[in-house]
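Reminder to self: C-alpha cells first, then the designed residues, so the page reads top to bottom the way the pipeline ran.
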C-alpha cells in the first residue's frame, strides 16, 4: 500500500512520538488550520483565508461593529452557521482520544472560536479568543442585576428592550484583552510542559504566538504541525509538514497509554 504521508517515517517523527509518549505534561496550541479540514476557513491562507477576502478592521474590531452593527452581526451569524454545520475532523478526534488516555497530562490551548475540540470530547480546552456561538452585551449593563442576554430581541444585532444595549459576538476582537484567566492558564501550561505541539497556526497573532517561544525557553520540546511555513517555525525543534487531520492520527495513534 502506498504511504499517504511518507514523511511519517523520518527521525523527526520518531523523536516526536517518543517525546510525546514520555512527556508528563503536554501543551497543544491550536489555530485555524486545526479546523480547516472540517470546512471552516482559516484567516491568512492565500485565497481561502477570511482576511484575504474581508477587512479585519471592519469585521473584527469594536470600532467596525459600532460603525455598522448589522453588517458585522450578520457576518458572524453566517460564520456561526458554518461552525454548527461543521464536524470535528480526524485531527480533533485523535487528539481528544489521546488526551483521554492521559488524564491531567494534556492541556489544549486554542485560538479557535469554534467548538470542534469540545465536540470531539476534548476536556478543559483553554479558549484564548472566545466563543463564536456565544454573545455578550456590547457595553457593561448599567442595571443591577444586569439585564439577561436571553431578553434581547431578535434584531441584527439583537438589542436589549430595557436599556438598548446591543449584543455582540462573544469573540475577541483586535485591540481587546483576552478572556480573564485564559491567558494566565495558557501561559502556565506553556511554562510547565515538556512538549508543546503547535497545530495549524500562522503565529501571526499575539500573545498566542508567544506561547511557543515561552515553552521553548522553559525547556520544552516544541513541535509544529503545519503544511506551510509559519512565523514561529524558528521557535520549533521540529516541524512536521502536513495537515492536522492527516498528521495527528498518525502521530498520536501508535503509542500506548
Ligand atoms: P491563520 O489563518 O493565521 O493561520 C492558519 C494556519 O493554519 C496557517 O499557518 C496555515 O498554513 C495552517 N493550515 C492551513 N490548513 C491547515 C491544515 N489542514 N492543517 C494544519 N494547518 C493548516 O489562523 P490562526 O493562526 O489561528 O482571531 O490566526 C490567529 C487568529 O487570527 C485567529 O484566532 C483569529 C484571527 O484574527 C480571532 O478570531 C480573535
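Designed residues (257 positions):
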Amino acid at each position: 500500500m502506498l504511504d499517504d504521508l511518507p514523511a511519517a517515517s523520518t527521525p523527526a517523527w520518531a523523536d516526536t512520538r517518543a517525546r510525546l509518549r514520555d512527556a508528563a505534561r503536554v501543551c497543544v496550541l491550536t489555530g485555524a488550520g486545526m479546523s480547516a479540514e472540517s470546512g471552516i476557513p482559516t484567516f491568512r491562507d492565500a485565497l481561502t483565508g477570511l482576511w484575504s477576502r474581508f477587512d479585519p478592521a471592519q469585521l473584527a474590531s469594536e470600532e467596525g461593529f459600532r460603525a455598522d452593527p448589522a453588517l458585522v452581526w450578520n457576518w458572524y451569524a453566517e460564520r456561526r452557521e458554518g461552525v454548527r454545520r461543521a464536524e470535528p475532523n480526524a485531527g480533533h478526534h485523535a487528539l481528544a482520544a489521546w488526551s483521554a488516555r492521559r488524564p491531567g497530562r494534556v492541556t489544549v490551548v486554542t485560538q479557535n472560536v469554534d467548538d470542534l475540540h469540545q465536540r470531539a470530547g476534548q476536556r478543559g480546552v483553554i479558549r484564548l479568543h472566545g466563543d463564536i456561538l456565544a454573545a455578550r452585551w456590547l457595553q457593561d449593563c448599567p442595571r443591577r442585576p444586569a439585564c439577561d442576554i436571553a431578553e434581547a430581541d431578535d434584531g441584527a444585532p439583537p438589542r436589549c428592550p430595557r436599556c438598548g444595549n446591543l449584543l455582540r459576538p462573544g469573540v475577541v476582537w483586535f485591540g481587546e484583552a483576552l478572556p480573564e484567566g485564559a491567558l494566565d492558564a495558557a501561559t502556565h501550561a506553556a511554562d510547565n510542559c515538556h512538549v508543546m505541539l503547535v497545530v495549524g497556526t500562522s503565529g501571526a497573532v499575539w500573545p498566542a504566538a508567544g506561547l511557543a517561544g515561552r515553552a521553548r525557553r522553559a525547556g520544552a520540546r516544541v513541535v509544529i504541525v503545519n503544511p506551510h511555513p509559519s512565523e514561529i517555525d524558528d521557535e520549533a525543534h521540529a516541524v512536521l509538514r502536513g495537515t492536522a487531520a492527516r498528521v495527528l492520527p498518525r502521530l498520536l495513534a501508535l503509542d500506548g497509554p
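The chain has two domains: 1-40+87-129+178-257, 41-85+133-171.
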